[in-house]
Design goal:
Radius of gyration: 16 Å
Order of helices and strands: HEHHEEEEHEE
CATH topology: NADH Oxidase
Number of strands: 7
Number of helices: 4
CATH architecture: 3-Layer(aba) Sandwich
CATH class: Alpha Beta
Shape: globular
CATH superfamily: NADH Oxidase
Number of domains: 1
């Protein structure tokens, strides 16, 4: 059973493969803050989308919290904040930041750079970070898993006073560049940042 769980984790969100040509830079994240924020019912009341953003960068603590909400490890057995069918964990999240694109490694709570350069300009929204929610295309449950991921982020943003919007458009902006595992795709993008003043 332990070997099966290890293999599932190996295949899933925690260790998505990165091509040999991808950058190997790692960015350590602060531990996600798992306390605080608004009470749950107030968070639901505040949940909404915003399509305009202040361009201020997000502190790394916020980046860590957001990524943990999307697809972080929240139990000692390696299970995630996002539910997946039979705990297959065939989901992941990438962060497009001003200096490049990073894969979130939830097990180690680090960002692993897979592309260098300013790819934020591809998304035309002014947000300081764009999340790319990815999953295996052949898994019929992938759209449901992705919905849970972006809603986790939306609820975190509502609780933390941040802006976000979920978009099924612009998911192809990094086609041919983003080193996804074979058979995976970007289902949704989610710009995140401070609300425009």
């Amino acid at each position: 059973m332990a070997l099966r769980h290890f293999m599932l984790s190996f295949l899933g969100c925690l260790v998505l493969s990165v091509s040999a040509h991808a950058a190997a830079d790692r960015l350590e994240l602060p531990a996600p803050q798992k306390t605080g924020g608004l009470p749950f019912m107030e968070t639901l009341n505040e949940r909404h989308v915003e399509r305009t953003f202040d361009s201020r960068p997000l502190p790394m603590q916020e980046v860590s919290n957001i990524l943990w909400a999307a697809c972080g490890v929240n139990r000692s057995d390696g299970r995630l904040t996002v539910p997946t069918a039979m705990n297959r964990q065939l989901v992941g999240v990438y962060a497009v930041l001003p200096d490049g694109v990073y894969r979130y490694n939830a097990q180690q709570n680090v960002l692993e750079q897979v592309l260098r350069g300013d790819y934020l300009k591809q998304y035309r929204n002014g947000a300081p970070m764009v999340l790319l929610h990815v999953a295996r295309e052949s898994d019929r449950c992938s759209p449901f898993h992705i919905g849970s991921m972006y809603e986790n982020v939306a609820l975190y943003c509502a609780s933390a006073g941040l802006a976000n919007v979920m978009k099924a458009q612009e998911t192809d902006r990094l086609d041919g560049k983003l080193p996804l595992p074979d058979g995976w795709k970007v289902y949704m993008i989610q710009p995140v940042g401070y609300p425009a003043k």
